[in-house]
Amino acid sequence: MGSVYALVSPGGSPGATTAALALALGWPAPVIVAECDPAGGAVLAGALGGHEPAATGLMEHAIEAGRNPQAAAAGLVARLVPLDTSRTRMVLPGLSDPRQAVGLVAAWPAVAMTLAGQHCDVIADCGRLDASDAQPHAVLAAASTVAVVLRPTLRQVWAARPRIDMLGQLLGSTGRVVLLVNGPGTHPPREIAGTLGVPVAAVLPADARSAAVLSDGAPRRRQFGSGPLMAAAKGAGQALRRHAAAHASASASSQFTVMGAQR
Fold it and tell me: What is the rounded distance in angstroms from the CA atom of residue 156 to the CA atom of residue 160?
């Protein structure tokens, strides 16, 4: 089975969806980007330039998952849209209307189960984290790693602090939480990590041309794949996978120690 990697933001357009797509295109294995943002999906009208039909997506998958999670997990591939010609990087389009989010509240646990049951990794773009009941809490809980995407500015760090507290309460600790620092700002990553109490997994540089391709479907230049953003995204994906593996190993070791002490 693959692992789920969830991305959230503190708001203020830090580029979480752009980061999710950059990570996917540089991921070292087949991967699915699942748009789980209750505010609505952006990939069909953005990176894909509106060229792909929106006949199926998260809402249809959620309805099926609520009826039969096993069948929905097996049939997810039919609802995916390719991000590249190899079809090893796919996307599950998100909601086309944020008013649909209310109908997803009861379905999130089933959706999380189907995403966690895939045979490849899943990057879940969960959008802005807030206190709304429409939040995909079950998807976050199912994630091996939750990355808070933020710009290195005081305003973003200020907004991230209560959201990291929220994640700590939801997950039981902040051990699975990391930071993904994205774009220009005024504060160094080490200072941000110290302030927020969670590590910086990676830094994605300011690269307006590449970001425009991923956010708005701008034409790809020949150097797109080797540009600063895509080069950094490859390393960022590897860092997220290492963090997930290290946390899983530490958790397994802790459980083994507890079991040994109980004997």
Answer: 6
